[in-house]
Design brief:
mainly beta; single chain; 157 residues
Length: 157
């Protein structure tokens, strides 16, 4: 069985907009139509979606903390249970181990649609933590950092 696609898919570039999760799925950018993490425990995370649905996500200019999968009440967005080491969270841990790139998409508001998904490019899982989140339940948090650009070839002038 071949590896899932790690890295860019097709001609997608950072900044590209997608109209829906269905479009992302049909184009192979982010295959799950509902889940925010596309991952396997064996190979790692292919892609994630930042949708401002987890209270423990923390976004900065040059990195972000991504709350793992599970334990969230869909109506309130609050954690109501500890997160478990399920296949999606294991996949994010595996990405940290392998150093493979993760495609990141972010839900943004774009008129006239209520929202779209912007491709944020490739990122890597630098580290993780597991501990109490804002609601007191244990949460996996993964720190994602920009994927290193290809090195500039050395000049021997």
């Amino acid at each position: 069985m071949p590896l899932p696609p790690f890295g860019h898919v097709g001609s997608a570039q950072a900044g590209d907009l997608f109209h829906s999760r269905l479009e992302l799925s049909l184009l192979g950018q982010h295959r799950p139509r509902r889940a925010g993490v596309c991952a396997t425990a064996a190979h790692g995370a292919e892609s994630i979606i930042l949708a401002d649905q987890y209270e423990d996500d923390e976004i900065h200019d040059d990195y972000f903390w991504y709350a793992g999968h599970g334990g969230r009440d869909a109506k309130t967005g609050h954690q109501v249970a500890d997160q478990q080491l399920d296949a999606r969270n294991q996949g994010l841990l595996r990405s940290q181990e392998t150093g493979r790139p993760v495609r990141v998409y972010r839900r943004i508001e774009v008129a006239p649609a209520p929202w779209q998904f912007r491709y944020e490019g490739l990122w890597r899982v630098g580290t993780h933590e597991y501990g109490p989140g804002k609601s007191g339940f244990r949460v996996y948090r993964f720190r994602l950092e920009p994927w290193p650009a290809a090195p500039t070839p050395l000049s021997y002038d």
